[in-house]
Amino acid sequence: MAGNSIGQHFRVTTFGESHGLALGCIVDGCPPGLELTEADLQGDLDRRRPGTSRYTTQRREPDEVKILSGVFEGKTTGTSIGLLIENTDQRSKDYSDIKDKFRPGHADYTYHQKYGIRDYRGGGRSSARETAMRVAAGAVAKKYLRQEFGIEIRAYLAQMGDISIEKVDWAEIENNAFFCPDVDKVEQFDALIRDLKKQGDSIGAKIQVVATQVPVGLGEPVFDRLDADIAHALMSINAVKGVEIGDGFAVVQQKGSQHRDTLSPDGFGSNHAGGVLGGISTGQDIVANIALKPTSSITVPGDTITKAGEKTQLITKGRHDPCVGIRAVPIAEAMLAIVLMDHLLRHRGQNQNVTTETPKI
Amino acid sequence: MAGNSIGQHFRVTTFGESHGLALGCIVDGCPPGLELTEADLQGDLDRRRPGTSRYTTQRREPDEVKILSGVFEGKTTGTSIGLLIENTDQRSKDYSDIKDKFRPGHADYTYHQKYGIRDYRGGGRSSARETAMRVAAGAVAKKYLRQEFGIEIRAYLAQMGDISIEKVDWAEIENNAFFCPDVDKVEQFDALIRDLKKQGDSIGAKIQVVATQVPVGLGEPVFDRLDADIAHALMSINAVKGVEIGDGFAVVQQKGSQHRDTLSPDGFGSNHAGGVLGGISTGQDIVANIALKPTSSITVPGDTITKAGEKTQLITKGRHDPCVGIRAVPIAEAMLAIVLMDHLLRHRGQNQNVTTETPKI
Amino acid sequence: MAGNSIGQHFRVTTFGESHGLALGCIVDGCPPGLELTEADLQGDLDRRRPGTSRYTTQRREPDEVKILSGVFEGKTTGTSIGLLIENTDQRSKDYSDIKDKFRPGHADYTYHQKYGIRDYRGGGRSSARETAMRVAAGAVAKKYLRQEFGIEIRAYLAQMGDISIEKVDWAEIENNAFFCPDVDKVEQFDALIRDLKKQGDSIGAKIQVVATQVPVGLGEPVFDRLDADIAHALMSINAVKGVEIGDGFAVVQQKGSQHRDTLSPDGFGSNHAGGVLGGISTGQDIVANIALKPTSSITVPGDTITKAGEKTQLITKGRHDPCVGIRAVPIAEAMLAIVLMDHLLRHRGQNQNVTTETPKI
Amino acid sequence: MAGNSIGQHFRVTTFGESHGLALGCIVDGCPPGLELTEADLQGDLDRRRPGTSRYTTQRREPDEVKILSGVFEGKTTGTSIGLLIENTDQRSKDYSDIKDKFRPGHADYTYHQKYGIRDYRGGGRSSARETAMRVAAGAVAKKYLRQEFGIEIRAYLAQMGDISIEKVDWAEIENNAFFCPDVDKVEQFDALIRDLKKQGDSIGAKIQVVATQVPVGLGEPVFDRLDADIAHALMSINAVKGVEIGDGFAVVQQKGSQHRDTLSPDGFGSNHAGGVLGGISTGQDIVANIALKPTSSITVPGDTITKAGEKTQLITKGRHDPCVGIRAVPIAEAMLAIVLMDHLLRHRGQNQNVTTETPKI
């Protein structure tokens, strides 16, 4: 059943398998008049791309995106924008090992059960390769949000295994292969990854994504709340198992007198809420965390069954990240951008103006 | 903008303010032939209702639901089901204190900024009273899921403040006012609540919700994943700040060899995934956690501003739960039921059959 | 499956059967700040109501609407508006005759086949009584469109049987029971209806609905065109079998040089297009026609079958309009209002301004 | 705002301009296991293609479609199907004449007003070239409907100018360039077109589209009725100004005793309803008519204005059909197929079985 679209007013629909001919998407609802070229999208695609460092998978795809429609003389026309990335690295690999076995921890089993048929080449549609189009679509939203409202959306690696960052220096994030904002932790992350490679194992990660300069008033109670839609968008990223807004699970141990963000004529006194109250943006930074599971594509042998239901074992060979969470940084940014864009268009439809001058922390 | 609906195939749309004439909802898409009476809904409404114990708010509403349409001679007809609960406890209270002030930690400020107008009586639309209709609609879904597929959906209080349960005895949950499955913790919860009442403060909570006997194959990649839709539905509950599927944030510290659920001819070897792989149900239990913030309706004075932007202070008097999380138990069940129902109808539309005979842990 | 909603941004969802407890609807997405009372809705409800004249069915329902939510201190708050009409005329009628027979030309057979169960009392959900809620919801849209943009939406009876009007005097429409804008035809319509009553038969009708002062630019290519959405909304009215925009079926015989509406600095030279080009409003009047079939509720006996598949005959007794088309006048206005409202909010979300100063005929 | 999708359960989203790099679409929700190759789509694309005869525009495009995803080893996998047609005939034409003028009867003026920017090359997004992707997507639906349920969807030219067909011989339709089912009229159509070419003018057309073997029970009251969704889909085709179901506008002059389709144990006695009662399919043939306006792309000069608002005149040179209605035959089939497919999936989701054994005429 149709499930490959996100957003109602700014709607992104994607297609494409890991080892098919191409990946593509349609960005529907982008307002007219936005200057847009392939270069605007390529930057984030390159940040997401595998093979950019020794810490991520060595698959080499240029991931070169083409804009096929919706842009005329360098500007969006308000019509649907078609984007395409051809798969160039379809090396004729031997998939006989996973063709009839279900890799544990992967979507092999569920796709097989749901559809009765499964494109087993590299995970097919369930591969994280699909997220390339999210990043391309998100880059359209990011550009519009930045240009029209000064909204910036950035993410970073907050934790990998039991190593957590201790400070956030935004200027550092693009200086290392981990999107790590704490220069003092880079070496530890590096050591952890090298160690995992040796073990043939993988590790989970926590990413924080932040949007600044967000107008107050975005979000539609009671079901289409801004935070609910963010949770949906972030949980739809491959490998994500948890989403927090603001203080997240820490609130369980907080008292009301601690948690609530007081207000003064100068703005909010804190941002425990993560920029959303009652499902509507407060004008403060939107802050969300996501937890990404360790990839199951590891060389440690795992018990599983064949399509015929027989006991077997499996080793996932090939080019795989020991920490898929790292590459989720640009993906998380893209998903948050898509949600904010969607809500911004919804809100503007009703109210005619978008207020940004509000008390903030 | 329209935001009061959830679900595409089983769609619930609600209306109603805390102190308006009535709350109501329309349940659209319930299959025909389901036996349904008010009594089927009243049980969960009573579980959610305030005033049932000394631990929850003392507002006394019978919360008596009426079925206005969609049922004929005791069975659903396939047409839209109208549900109504009249507000009987609209005691003429003095709201002058909050009329022109924004309660910190509440949606007062964001509603005011978004809409320019605000029904300040008891929080209006942003009040948790709205969730009564979710529970009523969810009860329709619960009955269908149970009857047609044997699916059971149950939740419990897993943690309050720093007190966590240590065992889950499903039979205990309805025996205490906390929906606590660990009889040994009831007294501690009781003591904590009494202490908070004295302080005029409140506390957060963690709820776990579990669905059993879920068919394999529910969920539509890539955006309408089952886990993404669950995250959306649970995060849309008032006060929720975090959602986990399966191991949730614990995955950050897990290795792939630990996390992945192996398969054998007898089923899965574990359920770290929480019953969802690649956005599709595995046939195992669906397991989700939510974090609920401590209510901001406390008598500890809080700094805030008036509508005119002037500095002031506020005490929230009246009938309020020290732990709103407790009452979220039936609400979380209802939301999970609505999502599963929606996906079950979607899945069946495509595949004609719903498989339940699958290897499970 | 969920099918009782219309509109995405201004969304109306209805419930209720002909002889159930009540009819209701939720109007979701109405902007805040609109002054709204029951009186704003009652006028159109009274125009639609049966029993207002001897030409329409003698069922007597006050059709008194209550606003249950979404309005505070006389103004809309931006939250969902709950509307309710209680069914007071549920006279305990004998339905044994139609309980097990399918009335030819009615939805009895299709509802039975689709759902396997059918509320046979007065047609249940398939009764035109359902349209009362459309009229109530449409009245909200009409008020907003009029107040914010000066848009007026009016309909009239253009033809009944082979009697067509020959002139349109808007001032006459509310002066007669036929919504007839040609005072010279009223007597002929009257005679026709009296004749049909004697025969126990019924007749079809054509209604024209017109919106004036419509801003240019409403409508979203390529599928959500304004004219396509109007066609959807009007065809969803009970008994409608045809929809035309502008010249409609007359275009089949027109040449391009005749049909195209030329432009000059003073505006369009004609309005063959009916106010829509390429799916987008031109700023001219929106003009649409609908064809309504003669009701099948007649006393002329008709061949049919029983639920068991046996041959039988049926006479539909009771209170029925010989021309259901007449009462479609306020319904058509309501549906056009809902569509325009929806598109206006969509358009505004994207473009931030709504242009009304455009060349018009 | 997002408007380039149709369908909820079988959802088609398109992109592409007349003279852009490519046209494309995503077919989302096709059930798995359907054998599908490009050849299945190419047949209908060739029927729609311009340049196939001297009666239609001489633009020469191979319209070769590529399947980029969603099919594996010759079968659909249940994931989204990406389709692409590259534009090969982008001859560097001189558009200076229409760049700053609004062609009367075209969407130039409305696109300009709505978006403030316009791809003027060949009409850009408003060009009928966009319908190629509808035909490709519709071919997927047609194949599924035929294979799974034996549903056939066919259309023909029923009228052009004042020449109407007098008989329907389905075998003749593909034997002539007009999709004319009445061999005796072909010469008259031919003469009319030749005459119009000489005059530099164009003519309207009426198309009838019929679906046979349709299961009973498709359609969701009250707004998502089958006939309402058909009206939406058909009115969304370029140049369509009217839609009829069954007897359509003829019902205005019919009596109830004439119009209603009686039932007997052998089936319906007639099909005035066109296969839909109460918004639900009866199991009879679905019959719909559409009226297509004469194209405004003619060489008869027309008054218009420039972007600056100054009076001017325009002649539309180039390769244009004197009757765009002819090519609407495969497009109408495609749109009806998409709607039926969508409703079939919806219906099946709720009821688990699809009944086809019903009394029919």
UniProtKB/TrEMBL annotation, chains A, B, C, D:
Enumerate the catalysed reactions.
5-O-(1-carboxyvinyl)-3-phosphoshikimate = chorismate + phosphate
Gene Ontology process terms (BP): amino acid biosynthetic process; aromatic amino acid family biosynthetic process; chorismate biosynthetic process
Cofactor(s) recorded for this entry are: FMNH2
Q: Where does NADP(+) bind?
A: 48, 54
Which residues make up the binding site for FMN? 125-127, 238-239, 278, 293-297, 319
Q: What class of enzyme is it?
A: lyase
InterPro entries recorded:
Chorismate_synth, Chorismate_synth_AroC_sf, Chorismate_synthase_CS
Q: Which GO terms describe its cellular component?
A: cytosol
Keyword Lyase belongs to the record? yes
Q: Per the UniProt record, which EC number(s) apply here?
A: 4.2.3.5
Q: Which GO terms describe its molecular function?
A: chorismate synthase activity; FMN binding
Q: Cite the annotated pathway.
A: Metabolic intermediate biosynthesis; chorismate biosynthesis; chorismate from D-erythrose 4-phosphate and phosphoenolpyruvate: step 7/7
Q: Which UniProt keywords apply?
A: Amino-acid biosynthesis, Aromatic amino acid biosynthesis, FAD, Flavoprotein, FMN, Lyase, NADP
Q: Copy out the cofactor comment.
A: Reduced FMN (FMNH(2)).
Matching entries from CDD domains are given as: Chorismate_synthase
Membrane among keywords:
no
Q: Which family does it belong to?
A: Belongs to the chorismate synthase family.
Q: Please explain the role this protein plays, according to its UniProt record.
A: This reaction introduces a second double bond into the aromatic ring system.
Cite the record's note on assembly.
Homotetramer.
What is the protein name for this chain?
Answer: Chorismate synthase
Naturally occurring in which organism (per UniProt): Vibrio mangrovi
Q: Which gene encodes it?
A: aroC
